[in-house]
């Protein structure tokens, strides 16, 4: 009987030892899994942190680049979309030989010629119903008027008052024309239409009447008959 009892105790002890070994094995596996998972999490955090830092750095660089580009755009103006150059005719009228873009933009535009004779322009035209301005016009509005078939008379401070007055009187009698001061031009008196431009010596220069006759609502007009009233003043 004692022998049977001892045998039962030994078996129970063996089962307990086996259970303990199994428990220790499970604990080792759990620790290994926990450590492995921790390594994965830590690695993920490190990689994620690096990606985040690089992303923030890229964003800062892009923002700085955009800011710089925007600054340049503001200071220099957007593209007029024009290509080509002027060619001079025997009558002195210069004709733009390349493409003159006609896209509406709300930003300032950097034109390749002064005064401009075409290119991207503001959606609102300058009123050009025989309108005489005493202050400079925005190029972008004036170009839109040229698109409608207007002739734009411009003058610098070097132009005589007599010539300015005579040209103003002519403009006031001519629908689809306008006049304004413009310092940044090559001659004291200039006349511009869409894709056309001429410098005149005086208000009595024969080219004045010729230019008005040829280009007020002339064949160069991209939008003949479009409004010249109720625009920007």
From TrEMBL:
Origin superkingdom: Bacteria
A Pfam family annotated for this UniProt entry: DUF3105
Comp. bias (Basic and acidic residues): 14-26
Keyword Plastid: no
UniProt xrefs under InterPro entries: DUF3105
Keywords: Membrane, Transmembrane, Transmembrane helix
UniProt feature, compositional bias: Low complexity: 1-11
TM stretches of this protein: 32-53
Region feature (Disordered): 1-31, 57-98
Name this polypeptide is given: DUF3105 domain-containing protein
């Amino acid at each position: 009987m004692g022998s049977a009892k001892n045998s039962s105790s030994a078996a129970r002890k063996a089962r307990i030892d086996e259970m303990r070994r199994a428990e220790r094995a499970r604990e080792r596996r759990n620790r290994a899994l926990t450590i492995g998972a921790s390594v994965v999490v830590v690695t993920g955090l490190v990689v994620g942190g690096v990606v985040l830092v690089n992303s923030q750095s890229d964003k800062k660089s892009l923002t700085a680049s955009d800011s710089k580009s925007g600054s340049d755009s503001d200071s220099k103006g957007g593209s007029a979309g024009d290509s080509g150059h002027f060619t001079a005719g025997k009558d002195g009228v210069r004709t733009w030989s390349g493409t003159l873009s006609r896209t509406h933009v709300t930003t300032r535009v950097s034109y390749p010629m002064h005064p401009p004779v075409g290119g991207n322009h503001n959606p609102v035209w300058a009123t050009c119903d025989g309108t005489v301005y005493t202050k400079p016009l925005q190029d972008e509005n004036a170009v839109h008027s040229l698109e409608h078939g207007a002739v734009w008379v411009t003058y610098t401070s070097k132009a005589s008052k007599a010539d300015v007055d005579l040209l103003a009187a002519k403009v006031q009698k001519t629908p689809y024309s306008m006049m304004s001061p413009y310092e940044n031009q090559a001659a004291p008196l200039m006349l511009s239409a869409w894709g056309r431009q001429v410098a005149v010596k005086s208000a009595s220069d024969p080219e004045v009447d010729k230019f008005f006759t040829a280009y007020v609502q002339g064949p160069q007009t991209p939008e003949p008959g479009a409004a010249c009233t109720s625009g920007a003043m």
